[in-house]
Amino acid sequence: MHGAGTATLAVVSKPVVRAQDLLVGYGGAPVCAPVSFTLAPGKVLALVGANGSGKSTVLRSVIGLLEPSGGSLQVFGSAVDERDVTFRTRVSSVLDDDAYFPALTVSEHLYLTARGHGVLGADDVVEELLAEFGLTEHARSLPVALSSGQRRRLLLAAGFARPRALLVLDEPEQRLDRDMKTRLAQRLNDERTHGGAVLLATHDADLLRAVADRAVLLSDESSRLVSVAEAVDMIGRNPS
Ligand SMILES: Nc1ncnc2c1ncn2[C@@H]1O[C@H](COP(=O)(O)OP(=O)(O)OP(=O)(O)O)[C@@H](O)[C@H]1O
């Protein structure tokens, strides 16, 4: 478990995500070849691939925003149901750039997220996250008054403000400076150490090297499990 003042990380031992020939897409058209992977507790799996290869779409399916069009997808051993309270207490996600409350200050946003998910000692959790994500001096700012990188920090901090056994992140490195990227990598490694599972999409070779155990390379022709070294090599050949 995390130290004092940090949202509790629920530890589970079964596979967290199991995708078998999973097909995802829009209007019946798949966005990539079927994808198969298993994500165990305490592991970090990265989705890599070119722009438009389907990374965000796979993530949306895993958190229940999009029904798979084929294959099977299980999260915590069951079909995905984001309305299920157990599912919601175990899955924390940061996908979209604008998923903040425009009328709440930075600290109110984090506090509401923590309290809304039943975190005890929410004040301490918020204070710790503000410091960790470099937002302390912006605690009373509204999101509109933040830079895009600071807003990104707020959304990421909110992802850590609630209980979770699975963290789903879409290109968390976006708009972060190097120092914040390093701290994010440390946070994700902590998550793994404490038994949390992380599924993330990324174009960042440094983040991959720092945190990922394996990667899934998505493409139209064949989506396949690859080593981190192979994923880093792919990113090197097709930098963003
Ligand atoms: N809501 C949508 N309706 C229809 N098509 C969509 C929708 N969202 C995404 N797509 C299409 O699905 C494909 C995969 O998009 P997706 O966002 O999953 O790719 P990605 O790998 O995350 O890309 P990037 O690296 O640019 O973030 C793209 O061709 C995109 O145009």
Automatic annotation (TrEMBL):
Give the matching Gene3D superfamilies.
P-loop containing nucleotide triphosphate hydrolases (3.40.50.300)
Instruction: Identify this protein by name.
Output: ABC-type transporter ATP-binding protein EcsA
Q: Which domain of life is it from?
A: Bacteria
Molecular function GO terms recorded: ATP binding; ATP hydrolysis activity
- SMART domains annotated for this entry? AAA
Q: Which gene encodes it?
A: ecsA
ABC transporter domain boundaries = 17-235
The record's SUPFAM superfamilies line, in alphabetical order, gives: P-loop containing nucleoside triphosphate hydrolases (SSF52540)
Tell me which Pfam families the record gives. Answer: ABC_tran
Tell me the lineage of the source organism.
Answer: Bacteria, Bacillati, Actinomycetota, Actinomycetes, Micrococcales
Alphabetical keyword list:
ATP-binding, Nucleotide-binding, Transport
* InterPro entries according to UniProt: AAA+_ATPase (IPR003593), ABC_transporter-like_ATP-bd (IPR003439), ABC_transporter-like_CS (IPR017871), ABC_Transporter_VariousFunc (IPR051782), P-loop_NTPase (IPR027417)
**Does the record bear Transport in its keywords?**
yes
Stored PROSITE patterns:
ABC_TRANSPORTER_1 (PS00211), ABC_TRANSPORTER_2 (PS50893)
